[in-house]
């Protein structure tokens, strides 16, 4: 991620937004076939539990690389009652560079090929879903993410890494390379037949990659902190930090020295790691620490509503950062967003979304929760896989 100026967009200088104009779903989860036409304004999807609101956001999340907001298998996205027809999602989008048409879906089953998804960009087949990283900027908040604020380091670290991917697509390959070397080292240690030189080669690769991973995480944290410091949202401001062996040392030691420290730590831990079947140190142990700044309280000890508000503050900062870096406001999916927010915080969120100028997709069971958005949002009712404009 290169250096860029951080000027929060205001209504008058807001960059153009990425916006869906038409969305079609085929054989996707509880949808047989549905088409939605909309404009760049926020969209509110309301309806009773089980109608298909989250499924619709999940379909949109597949316009970006990856497995979508539920990290589902391709087979799970298949409408169970129409199993012969592979699912598909298509969208006509407006972008600052002009119209964009994206189609994605499960490849028809054929013998000898693994389940995979196909992607077409402006009618041309793409080599993989990674090609969507360039034209699409998209992020989300889901109720499952509430837990990550208060729960374990693994979920928070993965969340931080996902934030980094959107800015630095090479980050995914780095993390995969590190995990592969770590698994291979553990396998050799467990089998007890590892030659020292072989282990040292893997540990060297792990040390180098761990430092690159930690540097990318710290870079992201620095930018997020800058945006958070400039924000005037009424949400509690989170203090964020990436903590881990490499992250801690990189703040005041040169990268090569940190690599040496890690290499030595891996070598020292060999017999313990062999015994426990895990790696005691490394990039896979890092954490994203979140603290409620005003209360000087770790997020884990905050109330459910406070945790939700901290997460929203963080994601609003992330959307601002994406907007600045991509020079276009991303699609922003907010699932079940009214839960745990009092009416003041809800109003503050809607104001913030308006100021961001992004096409936000919000879901909820109660239309009244979104009354403040009524003057400028588009409302749809979602019932049993059917979507109707309200
Ligand atoms: N592969 C599938 N095929 C058919 N139906 C599915 C499939 N996967 C999930 N569903 C169904 O889709 C329905 C809608 O799920 P979804 O999570 O979108 O509901 P929702 O509107 O977000 O509800 P809530 O308000 O409870 O969050 C559920 O009843 C679920 O059982
Ligand atoms: Mg839902």
Q: Please tell me the overall pLDDT.
A: 91
User: What is the assigned CATH homologous superfamily of the largest domain?
Assistant: P-loop containing nucleotide triphosphate hydrolases
Strand content: 15-25%
Principal-axes geometry comes out as: globular
Low-pLDDT regions: 1-12
Distance separating the two termini: 42 Å
Please tell me how large the radius of gyration is: 22 Å
CATH class of the largest domain: Alpha Beta
CATH architecture of the largest domain: 3-Layer(aba) Sandwich
**Class of secondary structure makeup:** alpha/beta
Strand order of the largest sheet: 2-1-4-5-6-7
Bound molecules: adenosine-5'-triphosphate, magnesium ion
How are the elements arranged and paired?
Elements: E1 19-28, E2 31-37, E3 43-46, H1 53-61, E4 88-95, E5 98-106, E6 117-121, E7 124-125, E8 138-141, H2 143-150, H3 153-167, H4 170-191, H5 196-230, E9 238-243, H6 245-250, H7 255-268, H8 270-276, E10 287-292, E11 297-298, H9 304-326, E12 331-334, H10 343-356, E13 360-364, E14 378-383, E15 386-389
Helix pairs in contact: 2-9, 3-4, 4-5, 5-7, 5-9, 9-10
């Amino acid at each position: 991620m290169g250096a860029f100026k951080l000027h929060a967009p205001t209504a008058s200088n807001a960059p153009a937004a990425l916006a869906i104009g038409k969305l079609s779903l085929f054989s996707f989860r509880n949808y047989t076939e549905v088409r939605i036409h909309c404009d760049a304004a926020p969209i509110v999807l309301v309806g009773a539990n089980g109608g298909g609101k989250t499924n619709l956001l999940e379909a949109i999340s597949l316009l970006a690389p990856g497995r979508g907001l539920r990290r589902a298998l391709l087979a799970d996205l298949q409408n169970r009652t129409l199993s012969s027809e592979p699912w598909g999602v298509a969208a006509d989008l407006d972008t600052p560079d002009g119209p964009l048409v994206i189609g994605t879906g499960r490849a028809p089953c054929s013998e000898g090929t693994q389940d995979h998804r196909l992607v077409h960009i402006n009618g041309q087949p793409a080599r993989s879903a990674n090609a969507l990283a360039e034209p699409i900027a998209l992020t989300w908040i889901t109720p499952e993410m509430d837990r990550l604020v208060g729960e374990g380091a693994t979920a928070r670290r993965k969340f931080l890494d996902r934030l980094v991917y959107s800015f630095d697509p090479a980050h995914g390959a780095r993390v995969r390379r590190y995990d592969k070397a770590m698994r291979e080292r553990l396998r050799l240690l467990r089998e007890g037949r590892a030659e020292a030189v072989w282990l040292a080669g893997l540990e060297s690769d792990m040390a180098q990659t761990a430092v690159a991973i930690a540097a990318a995480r710290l870079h992201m944290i620095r930018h997020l902190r800058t945006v958070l410091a400039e924000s005037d949202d009424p949400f509690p401001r989170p203090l964020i930090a990436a903590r881990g062996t490499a992250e801690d040392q990189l703040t005041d030691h040169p990268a090569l020295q940190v690599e040496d420290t890690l290499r030595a730590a891996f070598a020292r831990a060999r017999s313990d790691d062999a015994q426990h079947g895990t790696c005691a140190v490394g990039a896979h142990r890092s954490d994203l620490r979140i603290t409620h700044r005003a209360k000087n309280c770790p997020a884990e000890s905050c109330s459910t509503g406070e945790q939700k508000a901290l997460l929203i503050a963080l994601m609003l900062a992330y959307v601002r950062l994406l907007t600045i870096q991509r020079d276009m406001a991303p699609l922003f999916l907010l699932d079940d967003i009214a839960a745990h927010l009092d009416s003041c915080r809800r109003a503050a969120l809607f104001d913030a979304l308006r100021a961001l100028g992004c096409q936000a997709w919000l879901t909820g069971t109660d239309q009244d929760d979104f009354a403040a958005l009524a003057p400028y949002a588009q409302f749809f009712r979602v019932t049993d896989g059917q979507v109707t404009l309200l």
